[in-house]
Amino acid sequence: MAATPPETMHRKRAREILGVSPLATAAELRLAFREAAKQAHPDRAGGDAERFREVVEAYRLLSAPKITDSIIQPPATVAWPARTDTFLNITPLLALNGGELFHQPAGGRRLKIRLPEGLRTGDTLRVGAMEFEITVRSDGEMLVRGDDLWLTVPLEPGLLAQGGRVALDTPLGRRVVWITRKAGERGLVRLVGQGLPARGPHRQGHLFLRLAAQISSADSAAKTLRRRFAAAWAA
């Protein structure tokens, strides 16, 4: 049997890089890897060879079975307690700025939890006698990849084609961005140092803006009329 290669990365750090929780399924792990690898690939704008290497290493570590999984098995009669109350799901905005969160553990009293800024997936937070492991989940507008924030912003097609300076209202507040023609073609802008703040062993992250062409209200109205006409003609 081939010797298992030594781990150069801790599993906790691997989860941070892919943005997954310790309870992530194999399918969730593959999805997170594909997304992280696509964004970190050095051939893409904002990509980085070292970050891409870390993404690949993190996936290999988390997808490989642990040695103890095949050696130590609990007796079938032992009922292991559920650990759902040891995990705390937070939004990217709470990870960025911190704040207050109410949490109701199963069978326990409602807790008011004060979150510090800069939390990452895999960090632990002690509240009284309880210790929670943090999971940062996408809220539909924004997601976290390692130390970085990712946000999709709609822009006029003309601005994407010609480039220019634009003020964007985002969930993070107003951001003034200079968009080059190259950035408009690639659909990606990196704002250095505007991601998750440095905290403990974590570095200062960046903010990545995915640029999407915005459909004007006139175009939307015209498409609606065309669909109605087609439906009436087919009736």
Top keywords for this entry?
Helix Hairpins, 3 domains, HSP40/DNAj peptide-binding domain, 235 residues, three-stranded mixed sheet, alpha+beta
Question: What's a quick, concise take on this entry?
Answer:
The chain has 235 residues and is α+β, with helices and mostly antiparallel strands. It is built from 8 helices and 11 strands.
Describe the secondary-structure layout.
Layout (H helix, E strand, L loop, with lengths): L10 H8 L7 H15 L8 H15 L3 H5 L15 E4 L1 H6 L1 E5 L7 E5 L8 E4 L2 E7 L5 E4 L2 E8 L1 H6 L1 E7 L2 E7 L1 H6 L1 E4 L15 E7 L3 H18 L1
Helix pairs in contact: 1-3, 2-3
How does this structure look, described?
The structure is a single chain. The protein has helices spanning 11-18, 26-40, 49-63, 67-71, 92-97, 157-162, 181-186, 217-234; strands spanning 87-90, 99-103, 111-115, 124-127, 130-136, 142-145, 148-155, 164-170, 173-179, 188-191, 207-213. By secondary structure, it is of the alpha+beta class. The model is unreliable at 1-6 and 67-84 (pLDDT under 50). A four-stranded mixed β-sheet has the order 6-7-11-10. It has a three-stranded mixed β-sheet with strand order 1-5-4. The chain has a two-stranded antiparallel ribbon with strand order 2-3. It contains eight helices and eleven strands. Helix content is 34%, strand content 26%. Helix 1 (11-18) packs across helix 3 (49-63) and helix 2 packs antiparallel against helix 3. It has three domains: 11-67, DnaJ domain (Helix Hairpins); 84-136, Sandwich (HSP40/DNAj peptide-binding domain), CATH 2.60.260.20; 142-215, HSP40/DNAj peptide-binding domain. A hairpin with a 7-residue loop joins strand 2 and strand 3.
